[in-house]
Amino acid sequence: MSAPDERPATVTLAAYLGTRLRQLGVEHLFGVPGDFNLDLLDGLAVDGPAWVGSPNELGAGYAADAYARSRGLGVVVTTYGVGELSVLNALAGAAAEDVPLVQVVGAPRRAAVETGALIHHTLADGDFGHFSRAAAEVAVAAETVTAERATEQVDAVLLAAVTHRKPGYLAVPQDLALAPVDAAPLARPLVAHSDADALAAFEARLTELLATAQRPVLVVGQLVPRFGASDDLAKLAERHGVAVVTQLSARGVLDPGHPAFAGDHAGAMLTNGTAELVEAADVVVHVGTALTAELTGFGSHRRPDAGTPFLAAAEAGFGATPVGRVLFRDALAALDRALDARTGPRFERSAAVPASVVELAGPLTQAQLWSVLAGVLPTGTALLADTGTAYYGALGIPLPADTVFSGQPIWSSIGYALPAVLGQGLAEPGRRPVLVIGDGAAQMTVQELSTIAAAGLAPVVL
Fold first, then answer.
1. Which terminus of the chain has fewer CB atoms gathered within 10 Å of its CB, N or C?
2. Confidence grade of residue 353 (pLDDT, cut at 50, 70, 90)
3. What is the CATH number of domain 366-461?
4. β-strands 321-324, 316-318: how paired?
5. Which residue, 140, 153, 317, 332, is CA-closest to 228?
6. pLDDT band for position 369 (50/70/90)?
7. Any residues with CB less than 8 A from the CB of 293 and at least 6 apart, and which?
8. Is the predicted pLDDT of residue 95 greater than 50, yes or no?
9. Are 178 and 13 in contact (CB under 8 A)?
10. Closest by alpha carbon to 132, among 107, 157, 95?
C-alpha cells in the first residue's frame, strides 16, 4: 500500500513557484529586493531556493545566466520597472546564447493596474504593460500571472524555458504572491515530449544518409553543453568513430585527448585543419550549432545545404526545414542509433601539433600571458573569459581535461564574465572559477566581487 500524499491541498503561489524551481534543480535565486517583490521573496523563502542578493540587477542576471548554463535553469528576481529593465540586457544575452534564464518580477497590485494608477516605478501613463512587452521580445514565453491561471502560467513559462533553452518572463502581482493556489499540479513533473512521428521520420532519413558515409563530421555547438549532453556526445563519438569539431561556444565539450576530437572550428578563422576536414566530409551533421558571424569565421564556414541534418533545442530536420517537434536529447539518441548502421571507416585523428614555445624574457606581451596561463591552468576548472581581448586570447589556450569554458561570443556584452563567476561557482562548487577580464569590462560589474566573497567563493581573477 502506498503512503498517502502529505502535500497540502493548497500552497501560496510563491511556495508553488519555489517548489517547481527546486524540482528543476534550482538551489539558488539571484536578484535585488524591491517594494513590489517583498511578499514574493517572503514566500519563496519558505522551503524555496536560497537567496543570493546582488548589488544591482544586471549583475544578478549575469550570475543567473551562468548558473543556468551549468544547472539547466537560472532565475533572477527583480522588482517592477526599474529593476526588471536593468536585467533586460542579461535576458537578451540569454536569448542569443541559448540560456534558460527566467526573470521573475514582483509587479504592482492588480487594483493599481485595473485603475491605471499613476504610481512609482511606472512611466506615469497608466499603462502597466510596457516592460512585459519589452521582455516578450526576447523571451520564449512571457506571462503576467492571473488568479484564474496562476499555476498553469508558472508551469508554462518554466517548461518553455527548459525545453527551448531560452529565457522566460514571469510577472507576479504583489497581491497574488501569497495567495493560495492548488498544489495538486506539483505531483506531476514538468516534462516535454517529442512528436513520435516526427522523431521516427528524422531517424529514418538520418540512418539512410549515414549508412554509406565514409567521412562524416559532427559540428557541435552550444546546445550540447546547455543540455548537459557532453558525456552523451563523448560516448557517441567514441563508440562510432565519427569526427567531432566544436564551435567556439562549445569549447571543452570533449576533452582534448578524446579520440574523436578534431579541434575547434570557426571556418577559415582557425588554421588547425578543421575547416579542411569539414569541407572534405561527405556528411556534415550540425548538433546544436549557432551559425553566427563570430562562430563561423565571419561566414567562411561550409554552409549547410538542403540535405544537411541539424539538431536544435525543440526541432530537428534537414537544411532549413524541420521535420517537426523533436527534442534535442531525443534527436541525439536518434543520431546515436542512426550511426549504428554506418559501415565506413573510423576517424583517425592526426598527431597533436606541439604548442609553440614563447620566450618569457623582456616586457610582458599578450603571447606570454596566454602561454603562461596555459601552463598553469589545472584540470577540473571553469575558465570564464569576458568579451574582447580576454575572450579571443583565451581561445588560444589548450584546455586541460574536464574544463568548462564559458563566455558570451554572440551577445558580447562586456562585464558579463565577472558576475558569471558567482553563478558558475554556486552551480558547481567543486569546480574553481578562473576569470580573465579586461579592466574596462570589469568596471561594468565589479560590484559583484562583494557578492562572490560573501558566497565564500575563491576564484582566480586576472
1. N
2. low
3. 3.40.50.970
4. antiparallel
5. 332
6. confident
7. 299
8. yes
9. yes
10. 107
**Minimal CA–CA distance to 412: which of 213, 248, 223?**
248
Same fold, 10-187 and 366-461: yes
Contact 30, 54 (CB under 8 A): yes
Per-residue pLDDT band at 372 (split at 50, 70, 90): confident
Question: What residues does each domain of the chain span?
Answer: 10-187, 196-339, 366-461
Check: CATH 1.10.238.10 for 196-339? Answer: no
251 neighbors 264 (Cβ within 8 angstroms): yes
Residue with cell 528524422: 202
Extract the C-alpha cell encoding 20. 517547481
The rounded distance, in Å, linking the Cα atoms of 198 and 185 is 28
- Is residue 53 a contact partner of residue 33, using CB atoms and an 8 Å limit? yes
For the CA atoms of the chain, what is the radius of gyration? 23
Strand pairing report for 316-318 and 309-311: antiparallel
> How many angstroms separate the CA atoms of 429 and 358, rounded?
34
- CATH code, 10-187: 3.40.50.970
Backbone angles phi, psi at 323, to 5 degrees: -85, -15
Backbone phi, then psi, for 255, in 5-degree steps?
-60, 150
Check: CB of residue 315 under 8 Å from CB of residue 325. Answer: yes
AA identity, residue 125: D
Q: What is the dihedral of CA 423, 314, 308, 221, to 10 degrees?
A: 0
Contact 390, 420 (CB under 8 A): no
Least confident of 2-6, 9-13, 326-330: 2-6
Q: Say what the pTM is.
A: 0.95
